[in-house]
Write a structure and sequence with these properties.
With 321 residues, the protein is α/β, with parallel strands linked by helices. It has helices at 42-49, 77-83, 95-98, 105-117, 121-134, 140-143, 153-165, 183-200, 211-217, 235-240, 245-252, 292-296, and strands spanning 2-10, 15-24, 31-35, 58-67, 70-71, 88-91, 171-175, 203-208, 220-225, 228-234, 301-305, 308-311. The protein has 12 helices and 12 strands. Strand 4 and strand 5 form a beta hairpin. The chain is globular and about 70 Å long. The chain starts with a strand and ends in a 10-residue tail after the last strand.
Protein backbone atom coordinates (compact mmCIF):
# COMPACT_ATOMS: atom_id res chain seq x y z
CA UNK A 1 0.00 0.00 0.00
CA UNK A 2 2.36 2.74 1.22
CA UNK A 3 6.06 2.84 0.38
CA UNK A 4 8.43 5.44 1.93
CA UNK A 5 5.42 7.73 2.22
CA UNK A 6 6.14 11.26 3.42
CA UNK A 7 3.46 13.90 3.95
CA UNK A 8 4.68 17.29 5.14
CA UNK A 9 2.89 20.48 6.16
CA UNK A 10 4.60 23.73 5.22
CA UNK A 11 3.75 26.27 7.93
CA UNK A 12 5.04 29.72 8.79
CA UNK A 13 6.93 28.21 11.74
CA UNK A 14 8.57 25.52 9.61
CA UNK A 15 8.00 22.09 8.04
CA UNK A 16 5.92 19.52 9.95
CA UNK A 17 6.70 15.90 8.90
CA UNK A 18 3.21 14.53 9.69
CA UNK A 19 3.96 11.22 7.95
CA UNK A 20 7.67 10.52 7.80
CA UNK A 21 8.75 7.65 5.55
CA UNK A 22 6.29 4.89 6.45
CA UNK A 23 5.90 1.58 4.65
CA UNK A 24 3.18 -1.07 5.02
CA UNK A 25 0.81 -3.40 3.16
CA UNK A 26 -2.86 -4.26 3.63
CA UNK A 27 -3.89 -7.71 2.46
CA UNK A 28 -7.24 -8.62 1.00
CA UNK A 29 -9.87 -9.34 3.64
CA UNK A 30 -7.71 -8.42 6.65
CA UNK A 31 -8.12 -5.76 9.30
CA UNK A 32 -5.01 -3.68 9.87
CA UNK A 33 -5.12 -1.41 12.93
CA UNK A 34 -3.02 1.74 13.21
CA UNK A 35 -2.55 2.87 16.80
CA UNK A 36 -0.78 5.73 18.55
CA UNK A 37 -1.45 8.88 20.54
CA UNK A 38 -2.89 12.04 19.02
CA UNK A 39 -0.34 13.64 16.73
CA UNK A 40 1.33 10.34 15.79
CA UNK A 41 0.29 10.62 12.13
CA UNK A 42 -2.53 8.03 12.00
CA UNK A 43 -5.20 10.22 10.40
CA UNK A 44 -2.67 11.91 8.11
CA UNK A 45 -1.78 8.45 6.77
CA UNK A 46 -5.41 7.73 5.89
CA UNK A 47 -5.93 11.17 4.30
CA UNK A 48 -2.75 10.60 2.26
CA UNK A 49 -4.09 7.29 0.92
CA UNK A 50 -7.36 9.00 -0.04
CA UNK A 51 -5.41 11.94 -1.52
CA UNK A 52 -7.39 14.30 0.72
CA UNK A 53 -4.46 16.17 2.29
CA UNK A 54 -5.40 19.89 2.39
CA UNK A 55 -3.04 21.62 -0.02
CA UNK A 56 -1.67 24.12 0.85
CA UNK A 57 -0.28 23.74 3.50
CA UNK A 58 0.02 19.94 3.15
CA UNK A 59 1.84 17.98 0.46
CA UNK A 60 2.83 14.37 -0.15
CA UNK A 61 6.52 14.97 -0.81
CA UNK A 62 7.83 11.44 -1.35
CA UNK A 63 6.93 7.78 -1.73
CA UNK A 64 4.21 5.76 -3.42
CA UNK A 65 0.73 4.53 -2.59
CA UNK A 66 0.25 1.35 -4.60
CA UNK A 67 -3.28 0.08 -5.10
CA UNK A 68 -3.96 -2.81 -7.50
CA UNK A 69 -0.49 -2.36 -8.97
CA UNK A 70 -0.91 1.35 -9.67
CA UNK A 71 0.51 4.38 -7.86
CA UNK A 72 -2.38 6.55 -6.62
CA UNK A 73 -0.06 9.55 -6.46
CA UNK A 74 0.15 9.52 -10.26
CA UNK A 75 -3.65 9.57 -10.71
CA UNK A 76 -5.46 12.69 -11.86
CA UNK A 77 -8.14 14.25 -9.60
CA UNK A 78 -10.76 12.84 -11.97
CA UNK A 79 -9.34 9.29 -11.67
CA UNK A 80 -9.15 9.63 -7.87
CA UNK A 81 -12.83 10.61 -7.74
CA UNK A 82 -13.66 7.31 -9.46
CA UNK A 83 -11.65 5.36 -6.86
CA UNK A 84 -12.71 7.35 -3.79
CA UNK A 85 -16.02 6.16 -2.36
CA UNK A 86 -16.05 3.35 -4.90
CA UNK A 87 -12.97 1.13 -4.49
CA UNK A 88 -11.61 2.85 -1.36
CA UNK A 89 -14.08 4.28 1.17
CA UNK A 90 -13.63 6.12 4.42
CA UNK A 91 -15.68 6.42 7.60
CA UNK A 92 -14.78 9.65 9.39
CA UNK A 93 -14.85 10.02 13.16
CA UNK A 94 -17.45 12.80 13.31
CA UNK A 95 -20.64 12.01 11.39
CA UNK A 96 -22.24 15.39 12.03
CA UNK A 97 -19.51 17.21 10.11
CA UNK A 98 -19.30 14.58 7.37
CA UNK A 99 -23.03 14.29 6.58
CA UNK A 100 -24.64 17.17 4.72
CA UNK A 101 -27.34 18.65 7.02
CA UNK A 102 -29.60 19.85 4.17
CA UNK A 103 -29.87 16.54 2.29
CA UNK A 104 -31.96 13.55 3.28
CA UNK A 105 -30.01 10.47 4.35
CA UNK A 106 -31.27 8.46 1.36
CA UNK A 107 -30.04 11.08 -1.12
CA UNK A 108 -26.59 11.06 0.46
CA UNK A 109 -26.30 7.27 0.14
CA UNK A 110 -27.79 7.37 -3.39
CA UNK A 111 -25.20 9.87 -4.60
CA UNK A 112 -22.35 7.36 -4.94
CA UNK A 113 -24.69 4.65 -6.29
CA UNK A 114 -25.79 6.96 -9.10
CA UNK A 115 -22.24 8.22 -9.69
CA UNK A 116 -20.29 4.95 -9.51
CA UNK A 117 -22.85 2.19 -10.11
CA UNK A 118 -24.88 3.87 -12.85
CA UNK A 119 -28.21 3.44 -11.04
CA UNK A 120 -31.20 5.70 -11.61
CA UNK A 121 -32.72 7.63 -8.68
CA UNK A 122 -35.40 5.02 -7.95
CA UNK A 123 -32.94 2.08 -7.95
CA UNK A 124 -30.53 4.06 -5.79
CA UNK A 125 -33.15 4.78 -3.11
CA UNK A 126 -34.18 1.11 -3.12
CA UNK A 127 -30.53 0.11 -2.62
CA UNK A 128 -30.13 2.79 0.07
CA UNK A 129 -32.98 1.18 2.05
CA UNK A 130 -31.22 -2.21 1.77
CA UNK A 131 -27.97 -0.64 2.99
CA UNK A 132 -29.72 1.00 5.97
CA UNK A 133 -31.14 -2.41 6.88
CA UNK A 134 -27.70 -3.98 6.44
CA UNK A 135 -26.19 -1.55 8.95
CA UNK A 136 -28.98 -2.28 11.43
CA UNK A 137 -31.16 0.83 11.15
CA UNK A 138 -34.78 0.00 12.05
CA UNK A 139 -37.68 1.32 9.92
CA UNK A 140 -35.26 1.89 7.05
CA UNK A 141 -38.08 2.80 4.63
CA UNK A 142 -38.96 5.76 6.85
CA UNK A 143 -35.43 6.69 7.91
CA UNK A 144 -34.24 6.93 4.31
CA UNK A 145 -36.24 10.18 4.11
CA UNK A 146 -34.85 11.60 7.38
CA UNK A 147 -32.35 14.45 7.69
CA UNK A 148 -29.15 13.84 9.71
CA UNK A 149 -30.27 16.00 12.66
CA UNK A 150 -33.33 13.75 13.09
CA UNK A 151 -31.10 10.76 13.90
CA UNK A 152 -29.11 9.86 17.02
CA UNK A 153 -25.28 9.80 17.02
CA UNK A 154 -25.18 6.02 16.68
CA UNK A 155 -27.67 6.10 13.79
CA UNK A 156 -25.67 8.80 12.00
CA UNK A 157 -22.54 6.70 12.35
CA UNK A 158 -24.42 3.76 10.80
CA UNK A 159 -25.50 6.02 7.91
CA UNK A 160 -21.82 6.94 7.41
CA UNK A 161 -20.98 3.24 7.24
CA UNK A 162 -23.84 2.66 4.78
CA UNK A 163 -22.44 5.44 2.55
CA UNK A 164 -18.94 3.98 2.82
CA UNK A 165 -20.19 0.49 1.92
CA UNK A 166 -22.57 1.54 -0.86
CA UNK A 167 -20.21 0.43 -3.64
CA UNK A 168 -18.75 -2.67 -1.93
CA UNK A 169 -15.30 -1.09 -1.50
CA UNK A 170 -12.18 -3.25 -1.57
CA UNK A 171 -10.68 -1.13 1.21
CA UNK A 172 -12.56 0.56 4.03
CA UNK A 173 -10.63 3.14 6.07
CA UNK A 174 -12.27 3.70 9.46
CA UNK A 175 -10.82 6.69 11.34
CA UNK A 176 -11.79 6.36 15.02
CA UNK A 177 -15.25 5.18 13.93
CA UNK A 178 -16.61 4.84 17.47
CA UNK A 179 -14.97 7.70 19.40
CA UNK A 180 -18.09 9.80 19.92
CA UNK A 181 -20.38 6.89 20.78
CA UNK A 182 -21.33 5.27 24.07
CA UNK A 183 -19.97 1.79 24.80
CA UNK A 184 -23.08 -0.19 23.81
CA UNK A 185 -23.37 1.53 20.43
CA UNK A 186 -19.59 1.27 20.02
CA UNK A 187 -19.75 -2.52 20.37
CA UNK A 188 -22.66 -2.72 17.92
CA UNK A 189 -20.72 -0.69 15.30
CA UNK A 190 -17.61 -2.88 15.72
CA UNK A 191 -19.68 -6.07 15.45
CA UNK A 192 -21.30 -4.61 12.35
CA UNK A 193 -17.90 -3.91 10.76
CA UNK A 194 -16.74 -7.46 11.54
CA UNK A 195 -19.91 -8.86 10.05
CA UNK A 196 -19.63 -6.75 6.89
CA UNK A 197 -15.98 -7.72 6.43
CA UNK A 198 -17.09 -11.35 6.25
CA UNK A 199 -20.05 -10.60 3.98
CA UNK A 200 -18.29 -8.50 1.35
CA UNK A 201 -14.61 -9.48 1.92
CA UNK A 202 -13.52 -5.88 2.41
CA UNK A 203 -10.06 -5.06 3.82
CA UNK A 204 -10.29 -2.66 6.75
CA UNK A 205 -7.72 -0.11 7.87
CA UNK A 206 -8.81 0.81 11.39
CA UNK A 207 -7.34 3.94 12.96
CA UNK A 208 -7.76 4.05 16.71
CA UNK A 209 -6.06 4.91 19.99
CA UNK A 210 -8.12 2.24 21.79
CA UNK A 211 -6.16 -0.99 22.27
CA UNK A 212 -9.31 -2.81 23.41
CA UNK A 213 -10.79 -2.21 19.96
CA UNK A 214 -7.53 -3.41 18.36
CA UNK A 215 -7.56 -6.66 20.35
CA UNK A 216 -11.12 -7.34 19.24
CA UNK A 217 -10.90 -6.31 15.59
CA UNK A 218 -7.39 -6.48 14.14
CA UNK A 219 -5.37 -9.18 12.39
CA UNK A 220 -2.23 -7.03 12.22
CA UNK A 221 -1.15 -3.87 14.03
CA UNK A 222 0.99 -0.85 13.17
CA UNK A 223 2.14 1.33 16.06
CA UNK A 224 2.90 4.92 15.04
CA UNK A 225 4.80 7.55 16.95
CA UNK A 226 5.66 11.04 15.79
CA UNK A 227 4.99 10.34 12.09
CA UNK A 228 6.89 7.04 11.97
CA UNK A 229 6.04 3.35 12.30
CA UNK A 230 7.86 2.13 15.42
CA UNK A 231 6.46 -1.42 15.43
CA UNK A 232 4.48 -3.65 13.14
CA UNK A 233 3.32 -7.23 13.65
CA UNK A 234 0.37 -9.57 14.03
CA UNK A 235 -2.06 -8.77 16.80
CA UNK A 236 -1.07 -11.73 19.04
CA UNK A 237 2.67 -10.91 18.89
CA UNK A 238 2.07 -7.23 19.62
CA UNK A 239 -0.08 -7.97 22.67
CA UNK A 240 1.89 -10.96 24.02
CA UNK A 241 5.42 -9.86 23.21
CA UNK A 242 5.68 -6.14 22.33
CA UNK A 243 9.15 -5.12 21.19
CA UNK A 244 9.16 -1.32 21.15
CA UNK A 245 9.22 0.50 24.51
CA UNK A 246 6.38 2.75 23.27
CA UNK A 247 4.17 -0.28 22.49
CA UNK A 248 5.02 -1.67 25.94
CA UNK A 249 3.96 1.62 27.50
CA UNK A 250 0.67 1.72 25.58
CA UNK A 251 -0.17 -1.82 26.68
CA UNK A 252 0.76 -1.12 30.29
CA UNK A 253 -1.56 1.90 30.33
CA UNK A 254 -4.55 -0.21 29.19
CA UNK A 255 -7.22 -0.54 31.88
CA UNK A 256 -7.88 -4.18 32.89
CA UNK A 257 -10.14 -5.68 35.60
CA UNK A 258 -7.06 -6.32 37.81
CA UNK A 259 -6.06 -2.65 37.59
CA UNK A 260 -9.45 -1.41 38.81
CA UNK A 261 -8.15 -0.44 42.26
CA UNK A 262 -4.80 1.21 41.59
CA UNK A 263 -3.69 4.16 39.54
CA UNK A 264 -3.34 3.54 35.82
CA UNK A 265 0.15 3.58 34.33
CA UNK A 266 0.90 6.54 32.04
CA UNK A 267 3.88 7.09 29.76
CA UNK A 268 5.85 10.05 31.10
CA UNK A 269 6.17 13.16 28.93
CA UNK A 270 4.45 14.10 25.68
CA UNK A 271 4.80 13.50 21.93
CA UNK A 272 7.62 15.79 20.68
CA UNK A 273 6.82 19.04 18.91
CA UNK A 274 7.01 18.17 15.17
CA UNK A 275 8.80 21.48 14.51
CA UNK A 276 11.53 20.57 16.99
CA UNK A 277 12.15 16.82 16.81
CA UNK A 278 14.92 15.19 18.87
CA UNK A 279 18.01 14.19 16.83
CA UNK A 280 17.90 10.48 17.68
CA UNK A 281 14.95 8.18 18.38
CA UNK A 282 11.83 10.31 18.72
CA UNK A 283 10.68 8.29 21.72
CA UNK A 284 14.04 8.53 23.54
CA UNK A 285 13.07 11.51 25.78
CA UNK A 286 10.22 9.39 27.24
CA UNK A 287 11.95 5.98 27.17
CA UNK A 288 13.17 4.23 30.34
CA UNK A 289 15.75 2.20 28.35
CA UNK A 290 17.27 5.12 26.40
CA UNK A 291 21.06 5.23 26.02
CA UNK A 292 23.32 7.80 24.34
CA UNK A 293 22.95 6.12 20.96
CA UNK A 294 19.14 6.48 21.24
CA UNK A 295 19.40 10.18 22.00
CA UNK A 296 21.88 10.89 19.20
CA UNK A 297 21.07 8.57 16.28
CA UNK A 298 17.79 7.68 14.61
CA UNK A 299 17.33 3.87 14.78
CA UNK A 300 16.81 1.97 11.53
CA UNK A 301 13.83 -0.32 11.04
CA UNK A 302 14.86 -3.86 12.06
CA UNK A 303 13.09 -6.96 10.76
CA UNK A 304 12.54 -9.39 13.66
CA UNK A 305 10.60 -12.03 11.70
CA UNK A 306 8.37 -12.15 8.67
CA UNK A 307 5.76 -9.41 9.10
CA UNK A 308 7.39 -8.19 12.30
CA UNK A 309 9.48 -5.01 12.33
CA UNK A 310 10.59 -2.57 15.00
CA UNK A 311 12.43 0.79 14.98
CA UNK A 312 14.58 0.50 18.09
CA UNK A 313 18.31 0.21 18.85
CA UNK A 314 17.64 -2.60 21.36
CA UNK A 315 17.25 -5.07 18.49
CA UNK A 316 20.52 -4.26 16.70
CA UNK A 317 24.11 -5.35 17.31
CA UNK A 318 24.96 -1.78 18.36
CA UNK A 319 22.86 -1.97 21.55
CA UNK A 320 25.50 -3.62 23.76
CA UNK A 321 28.44 -2.01 21.97
Amino acid sequence: MGSHLKTHYFTEEGVVPAVDGIEFKIRKGETLAIVGESGSGKSQTSLSIMRLIPSPPGKIVDGEIIYNGENLLEKSDEEMRKIRGNKISMIFQEPMTSLNPVYRVGDQISESLILHQGMNAEQAIEQSIKLLKLVGIPEAERRVRAYPHELSGGMRQRVMIAIALACNPELLIADEPTTALDVTIQNQILELMKDLKTKIDTSIMLITHDLGVVAEMADRVIVMYSGQIVEQGDVFTIFENPKHPYTEGLLRSMPTPEKKQGKLYAIEGVVPNPLNLPPGCRFAPRCEYAKDICRNEMPEVTTIAEDEVVRCWKYTNRWEA
